[in-house]
Amino acid sequence: MGMEEKVLVVDQQKCTGCRQCELVCSVYHTGSSNPSRSRIKVFKWEHAGIYLPLICNHCEKAYCLEVCPTKACHREPELNNRVVIDKNLCIGCKTCIMACPFDHPFFDVKERVTVKCDLCDGDPQCVAFCYAKAIFFVDADNIQMSKKREAANKFLESMKQIR
Amino acid sequence: MRAEPIRPIRTMRYLRPQEHWGWIIAIYLYLAGMGAGSYIIGTVIDWFVHPSRVVTLWGQPLDSAKAALLWGPILVAIGAPFLILDLGIKKRFLYACLNPRTSWVARGFIILSTFIIFGLVLFTKSVLSLEWFHAESGLWHILEVIALAFAFGTALYTGILLKATKSIPLWNTYLLPLLFLVSALSTGSMAVILSTLGSGLFSHDTAVLKVLMVGEQILVVIEGVVLYLYLLGRHRVSEQGKDSVRLLLFGEKKFIFWGGIVLLGFIFPFVLEGIAAFSDGNVLLIFSSGLILLCGGLFLRFGVLSAGIKERIPMQRWTEFQYHLRGMK
Predict the structure, then answer these.
(1) Does the complex come out with an ipTM higher than 0.95?
(2) pLDDT over threshold 70, residue B93
(3) φ, ψ of residue B17 in degrees (nearest 5)
(4) Residue of A nearest to B14 (CA)
(5) Do A76 and B72 meet the contact criterion of CB atoms below 8 Å apart?
(6) Domains and CATH numbers, chain B
């Protein structure tokens, strides 16, 4: 990854489950305020108070890209190394949905093609409108160290609780 | 008062089986497998027995024996549109062959298309037996071998397509293509038995029919063993593999497994074929067992498809971990 590449990062503990990100994503990409057509999905465990926004990770080894029979799913190294789907090539076979371990690409029932996060061409709307600041758009290189440190701290805290 | 769920996190939608590929894809895989299997069995019989039975239809001599043995590509050709039917934008179906380098859907498109074309050409040549076809030419034998190889490819591909989905543990095993290959041969040989019975091909030569029936029973037993090993392996491989097998055996898919796969696919046909063997090849019994076995083959594909649960992602494991920590406080 180059220095200029940026990635989406979620702080799950800050998410309140308001689903504002789904709404703005849908408006930005489809023009309609229909969360079922958004490119981000918030998984909720209401009784446990846990909310988990699931975003595309634009994986280095992207299964969606491998399994796409039409090459509609492709990588754009010049734009944050993002993995995007060309709507004009997609046939809606749903193979990428099956292949993604993060359950990310979604089938748009209106357009009859598979859609996925395209980082809003460098200005992610989910980040801009998240009032809880649970989603960040940060330099890929910076996040690695802080992510590792954060995970280590969380693990330490959890181990203390178990004891 | 509602009872507290024992494992509330695990009951959420994330651990639900996939719902994107359903009956339409199951029919596609089934017809492709059965067509390829029947072509393999039919070609082997054609090579070793050389049956011929010329009938005249609209003044044209037709070899009904070849038609009964080599009709597999027609089944595959009927099954292929089911894949198109499942596409979001059907008119773009030709795009599906653009990425054979990495995509098994694209490779399958090419394998199936080649098999359908070669198979139909050979079917036409064998049934019509026109002089200008030069039926004895060595080129036809080469084409037969190529078509046979593509028939094996088609039967294996139906399993490989699912195996290529690495995130679903139930499908990600080499035993799945093997299971679908054996099932393709089993349903295919039954399709050949039914078509030869329907055309009265071996009515004078019951020895061939008996060999076919014994072969069919052996294939059913092998299929049962492979299915057992497959489910055992998947149950042990990971938590979601275990979830999938449980869903299929004891969960909401149990009627598909016990009723559709075990009863229709194995027990009924095996018992009926055994009775038919003792009652001197009762045609009605063979027909019933054949049709029941063919239904079982379809349920096998649908059962495997509908029980596929995705592997949990690290975030989900983390969420579950957090939830249990809260319970400990």
Answers:
(1) no
(2) yes
(3) -70, 160
(4) A43
(5) no
(6) 23-322 (1.20.1630.10)
